[in-house]
Amino acid sequence: MLWFWILLRIVLSPILYLVWRPRNSGMRNVPKRGPALLVSNHLSFADHFFGPLPLLRPIFFIGKGEYFTGKGLKGLLSRAFFTAVGVVPVDRSGGDAAEAALETGLRILREGKLLGIYPEGTRAPDNRLYRGKTGVARLALKSRVPVIPVAMINTFELMPSGRPVFRLGVRPGVRFGAPLDFSRYYGQEDDREVLRKITDEIMQTIRELSGQEYVDRYAAEVKAEMAGREVRPAGDDD
What we know:
Helix 3 links the parallel strand 3 and strand 4. By secondary structure, the protein is an alpha/beta fold. It contains 8 helices and 9 strands. 38% of the residues lie in helices and 15% in strands. The chain has a 7-stranded mixed beta sheet with strand order 1-8-7-2-5-3-4.
């Protein structure tokens, strides 16, 4: 992770700024040291590059263990890339993916790091903002760290799904909002109504930052419908 972050800062950063001239704001809202939870919309693969770009600290993300278990050259490249961009694999040996992700996230925050999370659970199928899963609220209440809303801007146009490279002529960016205070809910991390309320407040703040249209449905369900697949009702923590 550290070597890729250094590479990004020294080599890729000047290129990304020169070619795409990203518009970034609110970086002072991210603490210079200590743990924080960065909660973002997710529009494109390009988010992995332009989200962390203006910060002076690396961001870590929780990812599927499958990203790290592939075989052959493809598996090796997958492990190298996801490790490089700060993805930490979830240990699912206990059988509960939601709990495993929660424990992994708490461990990262206990180490004093920045943890990035996409509460929509997947990249949006279009340029709209979708319903968040309540795992982000549980993580916020259990960790009791600052919660920073983040809005990726124009990355869907920059690199829509299926496109292998960034488009030219699109100016992406990222906006970091003011920290959200959920201390009034501490100790209520098992109350489903509280978790939904917190999650909806986070998503509303991201919507205000991003200017996106909000859709009160899970992105995974919409993507399945668009692909003509059978829709499985998604749970809040799936």
